[in-house]
Amino acid sequence: MKGESVEIAGYTTLPLLLPETRTFPKTATHYLYLRPHEPRIPDPDSSRSLFVVNIPIDTTETHLRHLFGAQLSAGRVERVHFEDVPTKKHSSEAATEGNLSHRNKKRKRITADDLQSTLDSITLPSTWDRQLQKSGAHAIVVFADKPSMESSLKAAAKSGKRGPKIIWGDGIPEDRIPELGSHRYSSHERMRYPDRATLLRTVNEYMTAFAEVSEARKREEMKKTQEPDEDGFVTVTHGPKLNSVAREDEVKDLIEKQKKKNAGLEDFYRFQSREKRKARQNELLRRFDEDKRKLRDIKDRRGKIRPE
């Protein structure tokens, strides 16, 4: 509506003209909805950020920088956070925290959950040269300062009064944004196989973070076992033997225990013990009869064999 600033549920509307394409040779009106960013847990950047809803699916950081900096001529954009897309800031903050942990001894100890979040943020190289947004997605635009954010919001409201005059992406050099269509898919086919150095660097980074998470989990479990329970008792645990000789002895002990266990199972039933006892008695009687026969033969030969 020309001459009036349309506001819906606290959002300032900014009408845009989507440029015509080969498949649709007409311009179409698209509406952005903007308001100051007010998260549930504020951060230092909240006061200078705009929450932008219903961004076009082909939106890039270059588009938003060009929109607020050149087309609205209002403020300088510092960075853009897209929906469900990890940002370089978060990953750099995690890396900075890891580096500062060794320097600042008074700093809070990094937990296994902190390391796990770092591990989850490590991904393989992207196979697309340009990401597409979801329909109706949102973005958080962080400006250089609060006056830039406020002036951008006022400029958007002023532009909304004049109606859809701004053409989306108009004036951006072609080499600044990767092409869509068949070019995007041909690039995807090429980027499916990243170079060996990049792939190795990513895998090594992941395995290093995975080892750190495992060690942190073990340390936390050991710490829990040393803490007293509600009654004041500490659970005593027996850790694994580390040297090879001790492991060998441990394996031998397990084998001996298994043999004893199997030996006990042989005489599990009463008739088995009875049969074994009978067999032992018969063997003793046989040996006794054999000894009696030998003794009798010796007595019979006595006096009959004389030396020459």
Nutshell version of this structure?
The protein contains 8 helices and 7 strands; from the N terminus they run ββββαβααβαβαααα. The protein has 308 residues and is of the alpha+beta class. A hairpin with a 2-residue loop joins β1 and β2 (11-18).
Characterize the structure shown:
- The protein has 308 residues and is of the alpha+beta class.
- Among the domains are: 7-86 and 123-193, no CATH class; 244-300.
- The protein is 48% helix and 12% strand.
- It has eight helices and seven strands, in the order E-E-E-E-H-E-H-H-E-H-E-H-H-H-H.
- It has helices at residues 61-71, 88-103, 112-121, 146-162, 182-191, 196-225, 244-266, 270-301; strands at 7-8, 11-18, 28-36, 49-53, 77-82, 138-143, 166-167.
- Strands 1, 2, 3, 4, 5, 6 and 7 form a seven-stranded mixed β-sheet that branches.
- Helix 3 packs antiparallel against helix 6.
- The termini are far apart.
